[in-house]
Amino acid sequence: MGCATQSGLGKTSEGDGYKLVWADEFNKKGAPDTANWRYEKGFTRNEETQWYQEENATCEKGTLIIEGRKETRPNPRYEAGSSDWRRNRKNIEYTSSSINTSGKHSWQYGRFIMRGRIDISSGLWPAWWTLGVVGRWPANGEIDIMEYYRKKLLANIACIGANKKAEWYSNTFAIDSIGGTKWASKFHTWRMDWDENAIALYLDDQLLNKVELTKLVNKDGSDVNPFKQPHYMLLNLATGGMNGGDLSNTKFPNRFEVDYVRVYQKR
């Protein structure tokens, strides 16, 4: 884990009253630092096509690379006739990685910054997001600081609605409207400012979404606000599934590259 320099802070300068409390600069070579990250393994959610495994996450030249690959091998959890989509697939067709700080690091409020580059090829679903440490989803709360699929960027916040399903506060942006493939060829900076009043999500210092915490109380009768508790963060590259889209014409391997992730909190 490297140290943030003053020149790299941008809007996280001392004048804003923030202090760096945690960062991963990915300056080591090889696997991500296990003091910061744990891995998801196997098929996980949203009927996505990728099998998550450790091998697809590596650090090179100060950058975390999460690589999506097209590779076929038997699904070790396969059960013929199973109704579970994780088990009724005879083969693994794609692999990737998903890493998170669960059980290692979590934060309540602060400024979260990630500088990264995403591939916008069809069917890819990169994301940088958080989940509350207490409660079952979606009652624990979800913040999608960076999410991309089906030719659009998303900035989402979710609690549980009165129907017991996720209640989303979302803004979406057509990728072509912000520069398309030329835009995606470069690194960009995503930011979340989260305090006791609101959650604000930014891309390159442009506000994408802002929601007051008073709107984000769970509607399940508990009156719990899942954004008044610590959250942990996740970085992943998913493929296909319920939202990812068609992969039939997508070339592999593909990469979600992360220069750094930093968390600041008020003094």
Report what the structure shows.
- The radius of gyration is 18 Å and the shape is globular.
- It is built from two helices and 17 strands.
- The protein has a domain at 18-28 and 100-266: Jelly Rolls (Sandwich).
- 3% of the residues lie in helices and 46% in strands.
- The strands form two sheets. Strands 1, 3, 4, 5, 6, 8, 13, 14, 15 and 17 form a ten-stranded mixed sheet that branches. The protein has a seven-stranded antiparallel sheet with strand order 2-7-16-9-10-11-12.
- It comes from Segetibacter aerophilus.
- Belongs to the glycosyl hydrolase 16 family.
- This is GH16 domain-containing protein.
- One of its GO terms (molecular function) is hydrolase activity, hydrolyzing O-glycosyl compounds.
The secondary-structure element order is EEEEEEEEEEEEHEEEEHE
Distance between the termini: 22 Å
Shape: globular
The whole-number mean of residue pLDDT values reads 94
User: How many beta-strand runs?
Assistant: 17
Number of alpha- plus pi-helical segments: 2
Q: Could you say which structural class the secondary elements and strand pairing correspond to?
A: mainly beta
Quick structural summary:
The protein has helices at residues 180-184, 241-244, and strands spanning 18-24, 38-39, 50-52, 57-60, 63-74, 91-96, 98-100, 110-117, 124-132, 142-149, 152-160, 166-174, 188-194, 198-203, 206-212, 231-239, 254-266.
Helix and strand topology:
Blueprint: E1 18-24, E2 38-39, E3 50-52, E4 57-60, E5 63-74, E6 91-96, E7 98-100, E8 110-117, E9 124-132, E10 142-149, E11 152-160, E12 166-174, H1 180-184, E13 188-194, E14 198-203, E15 206-212, E16 231-239, H2 241-244, E17 254-266
Parallel strand pairs: 3-6
Antiparallel strand pairs: 1-17, 2-7, 4-5, 5-6, 5-17, 7-16, 8-13, 8-17, 9-10, 9-16, 10-11, 11-12, 13-14, 14-15
GO molecular function: hydrolase activity, hydrolyzing O-glycosyl compounds
Family: Belongs to the glycosyl hydrolase 16 family.
Organism: Segetibacter aerophilus
